[in-house]
Amino acid sequence: MKPLETACAVRGAFAVIRLAGELDYSTVHLAETTVNRAFAGPTPHLIFDLSGLTLMDSSGVALLLQTYKTLRERHGTIALAGPSPSIQRTASITGVTKLMPVFATVDEAASIAPVALPPSASAAESESTDRSL
Fold it and tell me: Which domain CATH number covers 78?
């Protein structure tokens, strides 16, 4: 078992979270800490650099989905970069790739201007309710 290594850095308009090693139930807390550090930073736009990730179980998928949900509420963006074929397959099978664009590299992901995620249906409903008051 290769322990999870995490890093977070700001690159242009994005916070880049690098995950390397195995992301599973025993290491997801390390990734959560890094994501929370990114949330405290200057940008709501994240790129997950998955190029060093060798394994991702359902805990990792849940982390990506929770991050997506949080960023959607904050009008941010999320992208995945550099996943191996096995990580790409896990993301695809679980529907993650329907919510988050996947790029070959962090450079490619960072070259795209961030576009805010659409608000969730419940947020849109409350906005329309607020406007009618």
Answer: 3.30.750.24
Q: Into how many domains does the chain fold? A: 1
d(CA 68, CA 44): 11
- Helical axes 85-93 vs 58-73, angle rounded to 10°: 70
Give residue 56's domain range.
5-132
Helices (H) and strands (E) in the chain, counts: 6, 5
Q: Under 8 Å CB-to-CB from 21, ≥6 apart: which residues?
A: 2, 3, 4, 5, 27, 52, 53, 54, 55
Residues 38-77 as b or e (16 or more Cβ within 10 Å = b): bbeeebbbbbbbbbebbbbeebbbebbeebbebbbeeebb
The two three-digit tokens of residue 92, written as one number: 């695809």
pLDDT in tens, 52-106: 999 999 999 999 999 999 999 999 999 999 999 999 999 999 999 999 999 999 9
Length of the chain, in residues:
133
